[in-house]
Specification:
The protein is an alpha+beta fold. It has 2 domains: 2-131, Beta-lactamase (3-Layer(aba) Sandwich); 138-241, D-Ala-D-Ala carboxypeptidase, C-terminal domain (Peptidoglycan synthesis regulatory factor (PBP3), Domain 2). It is 24% helix and 36% strand. It has 5 helices and 13 strands. It has helices at residues 2-7, 30-43, 45-48, 113-130, 225-241; strands at residues 55-58, 61-64, 77-85, 89-98, 101-110, 131-137, 144-149, 155-159, 164-169, 177-182, 187-188, 196-204, 207-216. Strands 10-12-13-8-7-11 form a 6-stranded mixed β-sheet. It has a 3-stranded antiparallel β-sheet with strand order 3-4-5, sandwiched between helices. The radius of gyration is 24 Å and the shape is elongated. The termini are far apart.
Length: 242
């Protein structure tokens, strides 16, 4: 479990037990719990589907899901996890969807189980009201092009291999900026389709809010012998004279 949170880059979580009950040296934060929930949804969607089950029966015993927001008709809640200990209080990491938009809330230290649900609902309702999910880049759409050396084409179309969805303050799509950085100063053939050659940075108000791999949209094989000789000469002049 600790290896998993370390792989996610989380700095404020450390587990001492597998059951989550109070233990010396065991701690987490609301942000880390939300990010763990995000990874659960992203990385193991089949397992995540269990969290929306309102009840199940095992060994003749009917068990109800303790996440009361699953029964709330005003929100499309499908998870995630409740918890309670004497030291931590009543906790709930919840997630809900609205169209392409998904929000995750994390409430810790609640005094009652109803209180954690009420505060979670406030956060999710506020988020859906004041934020929106936009689709600035789609698969197959050219975002940029760059010169290619030693290939049968002299330029490469670059974009993304997955549709990009970003959740931003409502009405701020016009202010969203996107730029890219290549992994190397030059692109040399052969280049494979969906080969990662750089990073796209999405910025809002001068701050990077998301990064996505920049990939080659179409395969570019090596050029013929004479074409590569010509490119070699051009590249030498390019290096000499900039």
């Amino acid at each position: 479990m600790n290896s998993y949170v370390n792989a996610l880059g989380l700095k404020n979580t450390h587990f001492q037990t597998v059951h989550g009950l109070d233990a010396d040296g065991q701690y987490s934060s609301a942000r880390d719990m939300a990010l763990i929930g995000q990874a659960l949804i992203r990385d193991v969607p089949n397992e995540y589907s269990i969290y929306k089950e309102k009840e199940f029966t095992f060994n003749g015993i009917r068990q109800l899901n303790r996440n009361g927001l699953l029964w709330d008709n005003s929100l499309n809640v499908d998870g995630i996890k409740t918890g309670h200990t004497d030291k931590a209080g009543y906790n709930l990491v919840a997630s809900a969807t609205e169209g392409q938009m998904r929000l995750i809330s994390a409430v810790m230290g609640g005094r009652t189980f109803k209180g954690r649900e009420a505060e979670s609902k406030k956060l999710l309702t506020w988020g859906f009201r004041f934020f929106e999910t936009v689709n600035p880049l789609k698969v197959g759409k050219e975002f940029a092009s760059e010169p290619v050396w030693f290939g049968d084409s002299d330029r490469a179309s670059l974009g993304v291999d997955k549709d990009v969805y970003l959740t931003i303050p409502r009405g701020r799509m016009k202010d969203l900026k996107a730029s890219y950085v290549l992994n190397s100063s030059e692109l040399h053939a052969p280049l494979q389709k969906n080969q990662v050659v750089g990073t796209i940075n999405f910025q809002l108000d001068g701050k990077t809010i998301e990064q996505r791999p920049l990939v080659v949209l179409q395969e570019i094989p090596e050029g013929n012998f004479f074409g590569k000789i010509i490119d070699y000469i051009k590249l030498m002049f390019h290096h000499w004279f900039g």
